[in-house]
Every structure is written in C-alpha cells, then in structure tokens.
C-alpha cells in the first residue's frame, strides 16, 4: 500500500489507543516504517531519535539481530504452548527462574501476562484470592497514589488516577482510594523530604483507619510515576511506604511496568531502595517491546497462601497466551543483552541525559527538570517563580509533540507542557546530546 492509501485506511478503520477519535481523524496517522538502535525512520524516510523508546518499552533499542534470531528459532521449533493442563515450554520455565533469581527477596513465583494492564488486573484477582484464603474476604478495598497509572483494564483503570481513564466509562470505583502524590515540584514540603515522607505515611495510615482496619487489601505504587509526568519521590519515600504497609498488615504492590529493566539504573527500581514488595508487575522492557509480554511476580508467602486457599481446586485465572514461548524466548535474549552491557551503558547514558537536561534549566520556559537514569521530564512554565503551567491554548500537547517531531526528536508531550523522556539504553553519547540539543530547539520555538 502507498503511504496515502495507508493514511486513508488508518482513518477509516484503526482505533488508536488513548486518542481523541475525532482529532485523530482530522490529523491522520504518522507512519513509522523502520528503526535501528535509538533511531526511527518515518513514512517520508526522515530519521528521528526515539527519545521515548516507543512507549517507554524498547529499552534494548531497535534491530537486535540476536532477538530476531531467538524469536525466529522459537517460532520454528514451538510457536505456541499452553500452560494449561500442566503443559509448559522450555523458554517460559527458564524465563520464570531467571526472573526469580534476579528479583528482590523471595519474589520467586511468576505468572506471565500479555502486557502491563492484564498484569495489574491479575494482581487484583490474586490479592482478592489471597485475602479470601486467609479468611478475611472483607479486605476488598485498594489504595493507590494520585497521578498514578496502572493500565486501562476495567479494574486496573480504577487504580489509575488519570481522569481520562475514568471519564465516560462509568467504571465501578467504590473499591479504590487515592492518597496525594509525592510530586515535589509544586509541593510546599519540597525542601523538607522527611516531612513529605511523613505526610504520605500519615495519609496512608489515616486512609486505612478510615476504611477500617480489616477492609484494605493492598497499596499500589510506581517507584517513579511515569504517565503522571515522571514524578520522582524523595529518597526514602518508597521504603517508608513499604514499611508502613507491613505495619498496617496490607500488601504492597510495586508496579514496575515502566521502571523495570534498567530504566532507572538497576534491573528493578525497587533495588534503588533495597525493598521487597509482596507483588511486582512487569511488562514493556521485559521483551523490550519486540513482542507482547507482562508478568506478575509474588513472594513465596503470597503464593503459598493462595495455594493453601485453593487446595485441590484450580485457581481460575488464566490466559491463552500466558507464558507464550516466543515472547519468553525474546525476553531471555533481551535479558542477556541487558546483562551483557546494556544496563551498564544505560547507567552511563542516564547520567549524561540527566546532566544534559539539567543544563536546560537556564531556559526561560523550563521550570523543573527531574528523573532518574534513562527516565526524565522537563516541565515548562510561563513564570518560573510562580511555577505557572503552560496554558493548553498556548501550546497544546500535540503541537509540542509536532515541534519535537519536526526537530527530529520523538518525546512524550504530557498535557500542561511536560516533556517525558525514556530513551533506549543502547543510546550513544551522540544520541543523548542530540536529544538535549533538539529539546532546546523546541523550547526556543515555543517561547
Ligand atoms: N502500569 C504502568 C506503571 C504503566 O506505565 C503501564 C503502561 O504504560 C501499565 C501498567 C499498563 O501496561 P500496558 O500498556 O502494557 O497494558
């Protein structure tokens, strides 16, 4: 198909995720045709730097022949194996044990999904099962954090705190509760991290007390909030929340769908604070976006409790494509690449990215630069002292995205003028410098 016919066919048939259906029809699709390393080529043959690794997922970068070979070989040998009926495939079993060996503490048990949303959804089901098994079925209330994102499944979207994921859907929401975000930029406690941590711990405690000590099942958190605008909690926040969940007797779930697989430096961001969650969700960097896959990891205690509750009955939770052998083969190869140098390169390039973006702070439009490793955001303001957000009419997210695109840079443009960055870990110094330079170009054009 020629590009023009593709654009028309897209307009007529393809529903894009999280898009305004009307606006998309008016704007049309922006074709991507190929990619290599950290660079993508658009429908007109222009090369751009992918400063967002697709959708914070292509952590290894594009075009790794060894990943392609692993997928091809697995497709040839055994393209599909169900995990039902006690069946299994070698790559899935090897991947589960590789993750168990590397995950914090005794997160030894892995259930594979197709992506992040169904991983989060699976945790909700497993957690409800866990509390039933413990004889506490009344624990059916869940707590998460304002500005958080936990996918768009019917239940997971309830934990998500971004209005677009609730508006118009009429979701059941009477089981979920939010505590305030740890967002530092406009926080009066910005210069007093200990007070901010204490406030979050106190709010979590008060929420559990308000709901009733035997009503709350779990607390969900992203180690760094991604879709909320890359919001980084102060050091010690995650550990304090984890500890308080233990004191309160509720489960602590780390949603590492974005932060996993080297995005912040280590394999899992929980390692940054040396904590062990009760459950952890993974996706994106697990297969580096080459094929779909997500995962739920749980501690031995959670697993054994569910097992005890089920007895000889089947735990009725399953997907046709759970532990897909091709996805597992890809994930194993991606893991080998991370450990064969990409994690190290990501740490070096992450420091360069953070320093480069921090250098933009002198720009009149830059109010805040934040992030960790290869995860960052630049927040634009019209008044640095008052921290006035960019009015949407001045520069709508799509226009800022367009400007970056024209400058040869793919980034995430959040509403209210926040740029998000999550480049592939394979970036060279030249790629990182170009991301920073092109951002300055976009800022200059936005003045
Ligand atoms: N959890 C977090 C923290 C995410 O960032 C995302 C996606 O961005 C999800 C869950 C949902 O993952 P998916 O889009 O693969 O369903």
UniProtKB/TrEMBL annotation:
GO terms for molecular function: transaminase activity. The keyword Transferase applies. Keywords: Aminotransferase, Pyridoxal phosphate, Transferase. Its cofactor is pyridoxal 5'-phosphate. InterPro entries: Aminotrans_3, Aminotrans_3_PPA_site, PyrdxlP-dep_Trfase, PyrdxlP-dep_Trfase_major, PyrdxlP-dep_Trfase_small. Belongs to the class-III pyridoxal-phosphate-dependent aminotransferase family. This is Aspartate aminotransferase family protein. It comes from Paracoccus nototheniae.
